[in-house]
Amino acid sequence: MSTRKSGILLHISSLPSRFGIGRMGQEAREFADFLQKSETACWQILPLSPTSYGDSPYQSFSVYAGNPYFIDFETLEAQGLLEHEDYAAMLWQRSGEQVDYELLYRSNITVLRRAFQHSKAHPVRGFSAFKTQNKSWLPDYALFMALKYAHDGAPWYEWEAPLAMREKKALDAARSEYAEEIELHSFIQFLFRRQWDALKKYANDKGISVIGDMPIYVALDSADVWASPELFALDEKKQPVEVAGCPPDPFSPTGQLWGNPLYDWDYHEKTGYAWWIERLRHAGNMYDIVRIDHFRGFESYYTIPFGNTDAVKGKWRKGPNKKLFKAAQAQLGDMHIIAEDLGFITPGVRRMLKAVGYPGMKVLQFGFDSDPDNEHLPHNFASPHCVAYTGTHDNETLRGWVEKADKKTVKYAKAYLRVKKKSEIPEAMVAACWQSTAELAVAQMQDFLQEDADARMNTPSVLGGNWQYRTQSGDFTESLAKRIRRLNRTYGRALTTQVPKAAAKPRKKKSTTEEA
Predict the structure, then answer these.
(1) What does the CA dihedral 214, 217, 222, 228 come to, rounded to 10 degrees?
(2) Tens of pLDDT, residues 429-457
(3) Whole-structure pTM over 0.85, yes or no?
């Protein structure tokens, strides 16, 4: 980061929308407008990949594909790909304000099939070029999705053996039988990428950088594992020998069993980390800044025997360390990366982070354990080259955290933040994050809206009830933008937008700035 900046974490799914989930349409552009008004330089989101069982964006059917739920119907209508009645009267939410993923699963694909049928009468420019540009992953993904729908959503390892093991004769027959369905899923990805590129450009034109998120692991039930099993530590039946997770800690006595297949790092090293380099290239094209989740896993990673029901018994194994990122830098040049260096951090992890030069993360919610030497407290930040968060998507909202914190924690937080009331802690924590030396300070939108524990985005190791948080259309007010803008200006993090050269006065050699 060349200057002090701030960011707001709000996933696309959490945007306001009348259609069950946040989408990449007018409401998304209005949030970018809000960021500009509040002089907030960065918009952080979660992975954009299509979600699978459990609805987590960190368990996806593909590391390359985009989530069809985010495609905006009104945009498609304006482009002649939908009629208003194709989607407006459908049921998108049965009760409450949270995302109803079960309903979305059934309804969303119905509307996108209608758009695909409309496209046959009105071919869309750029679709053929998109398929050519993405031929390294799109055909396998589209076939995978076609087969998944044909098998009522069953994971690929439960398909008949010839398809699961990708026998050529079976694949050729499937490509012929499901040609129409394959084209549909390719078209859906084309629509997604076209809308995402337009939204990102809209934000970038306002001076806003988009921070994307790249999970370290992929889901077992994914096109990536099915199509390229050699990348992973699988047995001859394509079943994992061990799976990913985290060991037990004070927050999770039985650890975290993620269940993702692990990488065959020896194979990746022999290929010069080609798959990873392409994945990083793709992320660099999608986002301005890339946050890599569970970064410590590249130094060493925790393995759990396949079939275990918890993460208590496991082993640590060595990862590729800096070699992967040095190889990527040689081919891609310098990338804007944030390393999520949370969890069990060893001296080896710190050496790796220093070697690659990426900023790590500090989370204020982790700081108030009454230890004045805690590295997550702002006065202990060893260098400005870090990103400070009040909390991540895995944390409580600040109000929820305060309500559940024990008396000792609350007492120390009040003393540290110099507030008298427990209710004053959340706002003071945001201010402490912003006034820190960190190059980038980020808070969840929930904390600016002063949401309680019900607005938590994710509770790790809990299946169901996560990833459902939604904002409402009236949340992004002028007064809130003004409050955040004052915070940004007070602590030197305000976004400034360069005046276009054509608008600058002829005699001035230096570019001028204007308030957003």
Answers:
(1) 110
(2) 999 999 999 999 999 999 999 999 999 99
(3) yes
